[in-house]
Amino acid sequence: MNHLIPLDNLVAALSRLPGIGRRTAERMAMALVQDDKGLMRILANALLEADDGIANCERCGNVTLSAINPCELCTRHRKDAQILCVVESPADIMKIEESGGFQGRYHALMGRLSPMHGTGAADLRVDRLLGRIADEGIAEVLIALGTDVESDATASYLKEVLSNREVKVSRIAFGLPAGSAIEYSDATTLARAIQGRQAI
Amino acid sequence: MNHLIPLDNLVAALSRLPGIGRRTAERMAMALVQDDKGLMRILANALLEADDGIANCERCGNVTLSAINPCELCTRHRKDAQILCVVESPADIMKIEESGGFQGRYHALMGRLSPMHGTGAADLRVDRLLGRIADEGIAEVLIALGTDVESDATASYLKEVLSNREVKVSRIAFGLPAGSAIEYSDATTLARAIQGRQAI
Ligand SMILES: [Zn+2]
Ligand SMILES: [Zn+2]
């Protein structure tokens, strides 16, 4: 059968999306080809408009409208503007904002230390972080990274880099998630919850 | 936080892909925004090129290059060109071609009878099927639809429509799939396998 190069190229591009394997990409491509409501063109236009209209905030790394840069979170009044919350990615910023639990500013590293994936300190936005601490009069850096090995390594690295700065360094608490039972918690979570116990 | 309309639109378009829920679409959109290898534009271009370069064969419904229409399967020599295999979609044509088990021509209905989804006989390519039977001297229509209720209804409908034509109507056999055991087969599969028993 004739090779359908445009279809192959579409499958290849879709396969590069996170969590999309070859079979899923093939199914998507066929659905797009079969779609009679112009989805192919709608999706293409949405991509082109996002590519033009969305940017990373040059200050915190958050996603923002290209026309509003630095982003609102960087320029709007924030009650705790002297606290800088360091996260891995813009998705984390959205998540924390949704939680309503933080009123300071953000800084996305755009990754974490990962020798396995070839991500070193120079690939993270650490110089920018140090610059901001000075420029913005930051009193506390709150590290909001996950609980895996790479996040721990990144947190340790940041602690070291920040040790000679006039800034408090903290990390979000680890413990039992809301609504969870001791009985069903894993050992590491329990150990960290006990280690982080607080007086009541 | 500022509403990122281009990002919302991208999530909405991605959500329309088959099997992609809102959360997955959000994760995809963020990955696209974060991607530093131009995936957003690569995918947009692949979509636009597929939209331009891929079409449905005006004869059989198969996907084909827009420049090669009718498709190769319709015009190339086929050993059993007098057998017309009726399927639901172009994906089925690909599947059967890959199996190597069929050497005739194809006809995709682009759906199946489904009162629930509002798909009636007029939405299927049945008129085109009748025209092809006459034009191409088809001797046998092989119905290659699935085993669900809607496929059965579609097969029955086709049988009725074709009953006053000079054409043999057959349907692919149902039975145990390759490599399966009686012990683990479901009742319907077993019943159909017994019903379709053949002399050996
Ligand atoms: Zn910002
Ligand atoms: Zn064709």
From TrEMBL, chains A, B:
Pfam families: RecR_C (PF21175), RecR_HhH (PF21176), Toprim_4 (PF13662). Residues 82-177 form the Toprim domain. The gene is recR. Gene3D superfamilies: 3.40.1360.10, 6.10.250.240, RecR Domain 1. Belongs to the RecR family. May play a role in DNA repair. It seems to be involved in an RecBC-independent recombinational process of DNA repair. It may act with RecF and RecO. It comes from Pontiella desulfatans. This is Recombination protein RecR. The keyword Zinc applies. GO terms for molecular function: DNA binding; zinc ion binding. InterPro entries: DNA_Rcmb_RecR, Rcmb_RecR, TOPRIM_dom, TOPRIM_RecR. SUPFAM superfamilies: Recombination protein RecR. Signal peptide: none annotated. It comes from the Bacteria.
